[in-house]
Amino acid sequence: MRVMMSTQSVSSELAKFIATYRWDDVPAHVRHESKRTLLNFFSVALSACFDSTIEKAATVYGKFSCAPQATVIGRNQRMDMLNAAALNTMGANVFDFDDTHFPTIIHPTSPVAPPLLAWAETHKISGQDFLLSLVLGMEAECRIGNAVSPYHYARGWHITSTCGVFGAAMAIGRLIGLTEQQLVWALGNASAQASGLVETLGTMAKSVSMGNAARNGMLSALLAQQNFDGPAQPLEGVRGFLNVTADHADPMSIVGEFGERWEVLNNAYKPYPCGVVLNPVIEACLALSTNEALLAQGLDAIERIELTGHSLLRQRTDRPAIQTGRESQVSAQHAVAVALVRGRAGLAEFSDEAVRDATLKPLGAKVCFIDDDSYTVDSAKVVILMRGLTKIEVKVDVARGAVARPLTDRDIEDKLRALCVYGKSGVDPEPLIAAVWALDQSKDAGQLMKLVSGNAR
Amino acid sequence: MRVMMSTQSVSSELAKFIATYRWDDVPAHVRHESKRTLLNFFSVALSACFDSTIEKAATVYGKFSCAPQATVIGRNQRMDMLNAAALNTMGANVFDFDDTHFPTIIHPTSPVAPPLLAWAETHKISGQDFLLSLVLGMEAECRIGNAVSPYHYARGWHITSTCGVFGAAMAIGRLIGLTEQQLVWALGNASAQASGLVETLGTMAKSVSMGNAARNGMLSALLAQQNFDGPAQPLEGVRGFLNVTADHADPMSIVGEFGERWEVLNNAYKPYPCGVVLNPVIEACLALSTNEALLAQGLDAIERIELTGHSLLRQRTDRPAIQTGRESQVSAQHAVAVALVRGRAGLAEFSDEAVRDATLKPLGAKVCFIDDDSYTVDSAKVVILMRGLTKIEVKVDVARGAVARPLTDRDIEDKLRALCVYGKSGVDPEPLIAAVWALDQSKDAGQLMKLVSGNAR
Question: What angle do CA A215, A219, A222 make, to 5 degrees?
């Protein structure tokens, strides 16, 4: 099959799939996953609506909004479609608590769902058309990411931003009914706008490229609708996106097995707002936080905390001297201490406030690492050594949040419930949860946004 | 000097120069060049105001304009600052007839002047502040281009788009009075938005990245004004713009000799809307078009036309079978024929209409190339062999439009006059010419835009 396709344009093949694939052909488990990822999207977007990055961006972007067309999630504020899409993407990703496509480390839903939601608010779109566009846009985004991985991210490209613009373009392109040729042009317009650097991670500038991915992907499709043309091979051309941004691109991974292989099934949702290598450690420490022996002796009796895991655990998270909430998201010392002391591991536990909590640093200082590459990155063992030689241990073989042990539907609902509270939008999660699970029955997907508008402050 | 600076941040050094350099210290010839490049900018922007690319973009961008803040050149139309800046940049560059910075092949003025003009229309800015911001923005843009050349363009990056966003950010950043720290953040916000691919050349998609360079550079500065932060070393950082987009970047070429070396002096203006290697050939053919011997015998008596020049002339322009005006801009066969037949070489001579002119192809078919690398790319010899062994030749040693033989002030004025007519905006070039030459005396640079608004259609 690949040999036959190699004589055709990868961009055209992708466009054909996006233009013609039907909801009726989407497998049931893929349909369900599209709702799960949307629910997870709302949870993270609602967590960050008053974060300082979003506040500043809303100030500037708000000055250039042409009309109150679409909801800025949680802020009781409306902007035009492009600006609302940009801000909602920024919000969903600002804490890096959004979904993760494991083969590429793309956060696929954040740049794709917001333009669709903005469009759905201004045009009556069925829930099925909405979910189909979402899952097709994510498919395009992640397949293009596969084609440039791992070189692209390693070189320094912020892959969610650079590939997200294609996902948004294809999602909107499908939703507004672009032809195959117009979809190729939309890919071309997106290729001209693909940007974002790893150097910006940890700063607000990252959010600019994230917002652009959504905004400019949407714009790419709207331009193509006017027959604003582009190159024939924007992806695989000699000077196209793949060759320019990757030394060893694999164009053929973009095509083939359409409708059979689904990248959304390689997508996972984070239980904790941390680097995913910390998942098993945090899970173990949360279990230990209610351990009777430990409660009986008290945390002061802890002499040492041994973390045994894959060497990546130590390499990425051995950070004893952190200063900010953002740094705490990749600090094993902080994660262990806060999970043991507070018995929780949400955004509040990885905030600037939590880092200033004087009780945590002395406990974190007792953490030591034991590298053992027989562990996977989804597994770890935590051993607590107490005064008087008591030893308590918990081993996690496959952490919650791994592709092999995904969050349950209930887990995602609870994540939404918790993050609604954290974000202080006043949004009631229950009607939203019900509406997302029933979205494929809805005649008007834009109604969702009435549920996430938020209270006036 | 370089050794001392290497311990400092290149981004910070650049920001310091942008924040602190004064108009009083700008050398007189640099001041004058800043006006020449602005006049050339207006000429090309006024040529393209109703081109189909601009029409389509204006349709889509116009739907998202929040207020009629700033003039879209020649169209009797106003949009908000960001959208007007984008459209004016697109227009100035759509025919590739704008200025050329020879070391990098950046078209430096197109992404930098439009955001400044949009700002000047909405805020009272002196002509001196305007010209200083223009020349500083161009300096930043071209120095960053130097640092990534030649690898960056060769790899497939559309260097005017990718570096233009930094130029626009620095120009606006200076104009609105950002601090050094805020300018570094503006560079960071720009680094997250640098995009544009060579693959899109010859299509409308190129114009998207050009418009973004202006729009997003302006946005980068406006975000930085709100202390929207970015990385400390957006240019020279390990995963910063230079390392990610060039294999052999030279960060130090960005700093040093500030106020002494001026990249605007390496910038040239095109006499013809063609690849610059055609300049000497066209100049020779225009001279031949009035040659008495040739006029006496008639063009039908031509048996052969020999072009002797650097091998790049043949490599880049041996295109006998062209179909579109755009292709004709890099076709020696077309350029020779149209210059001989019409005695002109303006945009009308490199249009789709001209390519359909049946008299030109047979004449162009008589062109042959003689490679001689003792010629520079600015020189060529054209020999016409007539029936009966008459031989007429013209040799051009340094073509008009080369950095070594720049267009005169009068040449640029005449280019503006011709392109005003071509673009059909109804703009009167004479008051504009006078206003640009006197701009350093103006208390309100935004008044310029009243002169280029154009008539209602």
Answer: 145
Interface test with A, best of B204, B222, B227, B235 (most A CBs within 10 A): B204
Residue A445: its pLDDT value, please? 98
Lowest mean pLDDT, pick from A154-163, A239-248, B231-240, B311-320: B311-320
What's residue A388's pLDDT?
85
Residue B150 has pLDDT above 80, yes or no: yes
The partner residues of B305 in beta bridges, in order of sequence, read: B367, B384
Report the pLDDT averaged over residues B423-442. 97
CA distance, residue B244 to nearest chain A CA (Å)? 6
Does the structure show a pLDDT above 50 at B435? yes
Residue A7 above 70 pLDDT?
A: no
Check pLDDT > 50 for residue B5: no
Q: Are residues A307 and A350 in the same domain?
A: yes
Nearest to A299 by CA among A370, A369, A358, A385: A385
| Mean pLDDT of the B431-453 span | 98
> How distant, in Å, are the alpha carbons of A71, A78, A124, B93 from that of A67?
11, 8, 18, 30
Per-residue pLDDT tens for B349-392? 999 999 999 999 999 999 999 999 999 999 999 999 999 878 99
Contact B188 A203 (CB under 8 A): yes
Q: For residues B198-211, b (16+ Cβ closer than 10 Å) or e, as one string?
A: bbbebbbbbbbbbb
Query: pLDDT-based confidence at B316, cuts 50/70/90?
Result: confident
A192 contacts B195? CB cut-off 8 A: yes
**Radius of gyration of chain B, Cα coordinates, nearest whole angstrom:** 22
Q: Tell whether A401 is covered by a domain.
A: no
pLDDT band at residue A1 under the 50/70/90 scheme: very low
In the DSSP assignment, the letter for residue A449 is G
Q: Which among B199, B228, B238 has the least Cβ separation from residue A239?
A: B199
Q: In whole angstroms, what is the distance from residue A198 CA to residue A202 CA?
A: 9
Residues A378 and A415 both lie in one domain: no
- Residues paired with A302 in a beta bridge: A386
Q: Within this chain, do residues A297 and A383 fall inside the same structural domain, yes or no?
A: yes
Average pLDDT over residues A357-366: 96
Predicted pLDDT at A2: 37
Same domain, A13 and A145: yes
Cβ contacts (< 8 Å) between A206 and chain B: which residues?
Answer: 192
- What are residue B395's phi and psi, to 5 degrees? -115, 135
Which of A80, A155, A187, A208 is the best substitution to test chain B (most B C-beta atoms within 10 A)?
A208
CA distance A87 to A76: 13
Q: How far apart, in Å, are the Cα atoms of B435 and each of B36, B113, B374, B454? A: 12, 15, 44, 16
End-to-end CA distance of chain A: 57
Examine residue A384 and state whether it is found in any structural domain, yes or no: yes
pLDDT of A456? 67
Q: Residue A302 belongs to what domain range?
A: 276-396
Mutate one of B187, B200, B236 to test the A interface: name it (highest A CB count within 10 A). Answer: B200
Give the pLDDT of residue A249.
96
ipTM greater than cut 0.85:
yes
Contact B230 A53 (CB under 8 A): no
**Which CATH number fits the domain that encloses residue B328?**
3.30.1330.120
Distance from CA of B165 to the nearest CA of A (A): 12
Q: Minimal Cα–Cα distance from B141 to chain A, Å?
A: 17
- Contact criterion met (CB < 8 Å) for B188 and A200: yes
Are A81 and A187 members of one domain?
A: yes
pTM, entire model? 0.95
How far is the alpha carbon of A172 from chain B, nearest alpha carbon, in Å?
15
Same domain, B365 and B443: no
Q: Which residue of A has its CA nearest to B233?
A: A199
- The number of C-beta contacts closer than 8 angstroms across A and B is 186
